[in-house]
Amino acid sequence: MEFESVIGLEIHVELDTESKMFCGCSTRFGEAPNTQTCPVCLGMPGSLPVPNKKAVEYVIRTGLAIFCDISLFSQFHRKNYFYPDMPKNYQISQYDIPLCIDGHVDLEMEDYATTIGVTRIHLEEDTGKLLHIGGAGRIAGADYSQVDFNRAGVPLMEIVSEPDIRTPEEAKAYAQKIRAILVSLGVSDCNMDQGSMRVDANISLRPVGREELGVKAELKNLNSFRSLQRGLAYEIERQTKALQNGEAIVQETRHWDETKNTTSTLRTKEYAHDYRYFPDPDLVPMEFDPEWIEGLRAELPELPDERKERYMSDFGLPAHDANLLVETKATGDFFEAAVALYGGDAKIMSNWILGDLTYYLNSENVEIDAGEVKPAHLVEMVELIDDGTISGKIAKELFSEMFKTGKMPKAIVEEKGMTQISGQDEIAKIVDDVIAQNPDAVQEFHDGKERAFGFLVGQAMRLTKGRGNPQLINRLLKERL
Amino acid sequence: MAISEKDVKHVAWLARLALSDAEVEKFAKQLDVILEHAGKIAELDTKDVQPTAHAIPLKNVLREDKVGRCLAPEVALANAPHQEDQAFVVPRIV
Amino acid sequence: MELFKLTIHELHEKLVSKEISAKELAQSVFSRIDDVEERVKSYITVTRDVALAKADEIDKKIAGGERIGPLAGIPTAIKDVMNTEGIRTTCGSKILDNYIPVYTSTAVKNLLEEGIVMTGKTNMDEFAMGSSTENSGFFVTHNPWDLERVPGGSSGGSASVVAADEAIFSLGSDTGGSIRQPAALCGIVGMKPTYGLVSRFGLIAFASSLDQIGPFTKDVTDCAIVLNHLIGHDINDSTSVKIDKPDYTKALVNDLNGIKIGVPKELMAEGIDSKIKAVIENSLKLLEANGAVVAETSLPNIEHSLSAYYIIAPAEASSNLARFDGVRYGYRVPDAVDLIDMYMRTRAEGFGDEVKRRIMLGTYALSAGYYDAYYGQAQKVRTLIIDDFNRAFTDYDVLVSPTTPTTAFKIGEKVDDPLKMYLSDICTIPVNLAGLPGISVPCGTVDGLPVGLQVIGKTLGEEMMLRVAYSFEQSFGWSEKPKL
Ligand SMILES: [Mg+2]
Ligand SMILES: [Zn+2]
Question: Chain C partners of A90 at a C-beta cutoff of 8 Å?
Fold first, then answer.
């Protein structure tokens, strides 16, 4: 039997506000434990929450960017359950009336397009952090745990998708698109390493053609887009095997283990919570003026889809390039800065960014805006190619050096003597040497073997240590043979 | 009966309260009397009635996104029953 | 002179005229505490050193010719439900036995800035859950009028402390009658302001949508004076109302000409002791004699108040009290084997039976499958009750009723029958559900025990409510004191 996977994502995003959701404590990441707390975010007796206006605004901006309906009336609920990272043993969240409902995100896949529905976006508070002591730092096997409440109360936005996702690739593309939108909006840095963007996936399988949903598993600990894709691929395989063997799927939460490349049971549904949601009596409802919301809509910055259109129309880029360039805001910003500096064809900039630059960034795991190569580096380098100072081949070498050291291309070229040899006499002498030293190849060329010509060019390049002007070598070699 | 001993055990678990069997029995009886009384409102016709969460109709009470003063960590931890490395300590979770 | 017997306004005159010093006053009150506290047991914590230091500070101000406010130098007791920085705050519970707050509640801070001399923290039913102060995790407080009887609750300590002259005034909190009921049983004035008028920041929450801080005083004038300094918008409390602060002492007018007073017949029905009814009837005549128009009215839905209250308050409490888990503060069992064990036994050992009952009641009312029938329905009933009050207030300026259905009952009489205990608040609970202001003023005695008259005002109608209470007090001329 053929199965189809049904995937929905819950994306938690920490909002980029200065202060926490319900108190004035700073949201700065990476400070010493329990240095950013107060009676409110420690849940001390008698303390009361007051919501952060900017956080509310950020969620509404997000909703507008992904075509949601904005609730003109909204309220906070309490979600009750005991856990030591939660100071009050309830989380202030939203329940029946989230700030935004019913939006969507369009995805451009390799050879088809699709749309993923967004059920709701709601606002809540983040929890503190647990540090497990003993048992190799895993919760299971630890002797005890330490609690740091610096993160407790940081504004957290939860974006819940419809179960419209069908493949791990779509899941990854959807999550990446959400990130690009949020970063463009400036509402979050969406840093998965620091946990400011966290993705949980619900996945079930059903026979192709059936409407009814299968039993789902919830995947946790998907700490990167790569683990999202791999974790889902693993689950599909696991569930397919189970279903083919006639086993029932158990509704449960599963943990993705990045190193072992497997998922394992975290908890089954028997431990399902009864959250006892009710409107938080410490907080009053929110009612929004439609005009205020329209004002926010008017102020939305350019979003990835609009940017992509502009790259295609203004710079004549193919859809493929434009799509990749807008995948993160930083990549698009890099591209535009480079194009602005460079007088020539934007496609050349796109090629270098999506080619060598992306390759090096990925292999070193560096973000584009954190790398040593800036738009000015790239532009200066391409100009050196354009004016014939260096060859395309040398440029590749130069790029690697630039990436490692952050030095400007001209400086590197000078320092390493990488300039192209374009002197007619100099090249002519080398070409003569090559012809003299390789009589066999010369003979083969005269016998009509094209390959031999390539070999001779290669020999000439070798003698110039790669710096010879390839066009000149070609021309002189042809003349002399 | 409005509430059974099984229900009492369940809510005691949700509320993280350890109860002896004798207490379960005692509380079940007492809660049953109270719920019997309180449960009478279920019979009222409230089809067209809006619920009231706050007697005073306030709305849109929000604060500006400004950073205020935090507690010094030793003050934050001053009442902690158990602490280590400037963190609160809890016994093993699983 | 027995300074501890006097009122705020009398003492203020004497302090300003330098007839007495704040120190003398504080010493007088502490000598009274030394004298009677052993029998009454009002205080969980007495803060003598802090108080005397503060009195010295006030005396220096007076000596330096500085103007002082009406509360400066006045010995004041605070219900142990309000956070006081550096001073143990237990909420009447073993679970907070060793808890030293790191901040002060806004209400207490407001008064401290006015120069009150805090004498200590008063006993209460654990987490303000109760009507007799017998649910304190520490000891029972006795009614100064009859030491065999309860002072009422949950602010029993704050009521007895004023009735026994162990403080000049005190603060309490009122969720379903916890100020007005003990004020009535102890023969003093107790007032619950409109919900949102006094900041709840720093008040350890019982039921957030009902809790309100208010004063216990010896007369209505003192009540107005305290109220002037207690209220005010607080940015730390989202439910705090923004109003221009009135001077409530201006409302103290001894004239009820043309004032319309409604008497809800449901609050003069069967449940009310007939001798109390007789005292109330007399009080109504006094009000009429003073110019008021008194008539019977009806609040048909308030018969459901108790039911709605005993769903809403426990539901909110079950969530509010989840934070007492032994992680950040308070009691923790010393020998927990794991997290669940720590939670379960810490809370089982730290909370008393009444608190456990209400936590379980509230948990049940909110749990899956029961929410609509209990919590959802109770919130709707609350709307019906508010509508009843709104209708009545189109015809009347204030409503009056007995504060309690009986006088102070014997210690131990109702402890094993929670529902019977809950019925003690039948006249006060509807006022909390509707968020209205209410005051209890002494209006006589039954068998030597005080009876309270409840005056209920409109939302933010404190001034009219105080005027009626003041006029009544002036014409009634209550001057009885317990014999201790
Ligand atoms: Mg969530
Ligand atoms: Zn904080």
Answer: 319, 322
What's the structural domain count of chain C? Answer: 1
List strands edge to edge, sheet with A113-125. A69-70, A100-108, A113-125, A155-161, A3-14, A197-207, A217-222, A252-257, A262-268
Q: Is C267 inside any structural domain?
A: no
Strands (E), A214-336: 217-222, 252-257, 262-268, 278-279, 286-287
Neighbouring-strand partners of residue A165? A7
Domain ranges of chain A: 3-295, 302-416, 424-480
Cβ neighbours around C465 below 10 Å, total: 27
What count of other Cβ atoms lies within 10 Å of the Cβ of residue C247?
12
The C-alpha angle C220, C221, C226, rounded to 5 degrees, equals: 95
At A221 the pLDDT is: 87
Give chain B's domains with CATH numbers: 1-43 (1.10.20.60)
Is the Cβ–Cβ distance between C190 and C215 less than 8 Å?
yes
Residue C348: the pLDDT is: 98
**What whole-number distance in Å separates Cα of residue A76 and Cα of residue A98?**
8
Question: What DSSP string runs through B59-88?
Answer: ----B-----PPPPHHHHTTT-SSEETTEE
Question: Is C120 within the bounds of a domain?
Answer: yes
Q: Which CATH number goes with the domain that contains C22?
A: 3.90.1300.10
Q: What is the ipTM for the molecules in this complex?
A: 0.97
Asked if the structure places residue C65 within a domain, the reply is yes
CA distance C115 to C118: 9
Q: Which CATH class is domain A424-480?
A: mainly alpha
Rounded Cα distance, A472 and A422, in Å: 7
Name the token pair of B32. Answer: 């049953």
Task: Tell me the one-letter amino acid at A471.
Answer: Q
Give the long-range contacts of residues B5-14, CB within 8 A, separation 24 or more: B7/C364, B8/C360, B10/C367, B11/C360, B11/C363, B11/C364, B11/C367, B12/C360, B14/A80, B14/A274, B14/A276, B14/C363, B14/C367
Q: Judge whether A346 and A316 are in contact, CB under 8 Å.
A: yes
Domain span including residue C240: 3-252
Q: Which residues of A touch B76 (CB under 8 A)?
A: 34, 37, 42, 149
Task: Report yes or no: A443 and A435 within 8 Å, Cβ to Cβ.
Answer: no
Q: Per residue in A427-447, pLDDT tens? A: 888 888 888 888 888 888 888
Give Cα separations from A373 to A251, A383, A394 (angstroms). 48, 15, 17
Q: Is C307 an annotated catalytic residue? A: no
Confidence check: pLDDT of A420 > 60: yes
Helix, strand, coil percentages (3-state) for chain B, rounded to 5, are 40, 10, 50
At CA C368, angle to CA C365 and CA C373, rounded to 5?
50
Task: Identify the CA nearest to C456 among candidates C384, C385, C389.
Answer: C389
In the reported structure, the alpha carbon of residue A48 is separated from the centroid of ligand 2 by a whole-number distance in angstroms of 10
Distances, alpha carbon C307 to alpha carbons A445, C194, C303, in Å: 104, 22, 8
Strands (E), C187-299: 189-192, 212-217, 260-264, 293-297
| Residues in chain B where the model's pLDDT stays below 70 | none
Q: Evaluate whether residue C118 is within a structural domain.
A: yes
Number of neighbours of residue A200 by Cβ within 10 angstroms? 18
Query: For tokens 């509430």, what's the residue?
Result: B3
Mean pLDDT of chain C: 97
Q: And the tokens for C205?
A: 């929450």
Task: Collect all residues of chain B within an 8 Å Cβ-Cβ radius of residue A281.
Answer: 53-54
In degrees and rounded to multiples of 5, residue A451 shows phi and psi of -55, -35
Among residues C42, C105, C131, C154, the one annotated as catalytic is C154
Q: Report d(CA A100, CA A163) in Å as an integer.
A: 18
- pTM metric for this prediction: 0.92
B15/C99 touch (CB, cutoff 8 Å), yes or no: no
Reply yes or no on whether the pLDDT at A89 is more than 80.
yes
Is residue C28 part of the annotated active site? The answer reads no
Asked if C367 is an active-site residue, the reply is: no
pLDDT at C270: 85
Q: Give pLDDT, residue B56.
A: 87
